[in-house]
Design goal:
The chain is of the alpha+beta class. It contains five helices and 17 strands. It has a seven-stranded mixed barrel with strand order 1-12-11-15-14-13-17. Strands 4-3-16 form a three-stranded antiparallel beta sheet, with no helix packed on it. It has a two-stranded antiparallel sheet with strand order 5-8. Strand 6 (about 75) and strand 7 (about 80-85) form a beta hairpin. The termini are close together.
């Protein structure tokens, strides 16, 4: 057992592709953080729509819904209109906000897919094209229920591209880890295929690096659109920023918990 760092921030994203909320502690199950990607918007064809498509991106990333188990979820729409998820008019309001017919769903299709634009960046497949991409079956997750990122990776990329702003919200992790002993570089790459203990209860199995997409380059609040974010990842870490993991033992995780490689 080797302690490799500690949790410095926790995030969940109640509606897929919308902005997240930072937590001090949260329960975690085999389905991920409680409330994470609990909702998504589906188009008239049942496709999960997301900020990976340029026609949706601006609307999605300005919305910031908090997740509440009681009494109900409140979602802040791009029109600055707050609506309860169970309100009769919720789909009508969201459809107007996003400029297309959508429904707010809690149950994912068995074989979900998203529309994704790939920028014209050397090293990426399907450059300057919009394609359909399959995501995790029966869920609103792209590939796994947990996404982990280290501060070392963000610092490394910031050093590579100092004119850009590498901030947590661009990458949408659930867990942000500060490595132990001042470790630098793309630290989490070494954890792929290993089991991590987080605090006293939670165990996660790291499955693969997290390949990045156009969403990391999009404007959010005062953060500008910046293709150099993705270019730096492609040129220096095979397009990856962070790692994906599945939960093998649930429990409660807290800011400050130690992270140990088993």
């Amino acid at each position: 057992m080797t302690t490799v760092g500690s949790i410095v921030s926790l995030w969940r994203y109640p509606i897929k592709s919308m902005m997240g909320e930072e937590l001090n502690a949260t329960a975690i199950t085999e389905d991920g953080l409680v409330g994470d990607r609990a909702y998504a918007l589906l188009d008239r064809n049942g496709k999960t729509i997301s900020a990976k498509s340029p026609k949706n991106g601006a609307n999605y990333l300005i919305a910031a819904p908090p997740f509440k188990t009681t009494p109900k979820l409140k979602s802040l729409c791009p029109m600055a209109h707050v609506v309860l998820s169970t309100a009769a008019e919720v789909d009508q309001i969201l459809s107007q906000a996003f400029g297309q017919p959508v429904t707010l769903e809690t149950v994912a299709p068995a074989e979900p897919s998203i529309e994704m634009y790939t920028p014209d960046i050397d090293g990426l497949p399907d450059q300057d094209q919009i394609t359909d991409a399959a995501i995790k079956p029966n869920s609103f997750f792209d590939a796994a229920t947990i996404h982990l990122l280290t501060t070392a990776t963000m610092n490394q990329l910031q050093a590579i591209a100092p004119a850009s702003r590498f901030e947590t919200r661009r990458f949408r992790p659930n867990l942000v880890v500060q490595p132990a002993d001042g470790a630098t570089g793309f630290v989490e790459n070494e954890w792929v295929g290993k089991t991590l203990a987080i605090g006293e209860e939670v165990r996660i199995n790291v499955t693969k690096p997290c390949g990045r997409c156009v969403m990391t380059t999009m404007p959010q609040g005062e953060l500008p659109q910046d293709l150099n974010i993705l270019k730096a990842a492609v040129q220096h870490n095979a397009g990856n920023i962070g790692i994906y993991a599945n939960v093998v033992q649930g429990g409660t995780i807290r800011r400050g918990d130690t992270v140990t490689v088993l």
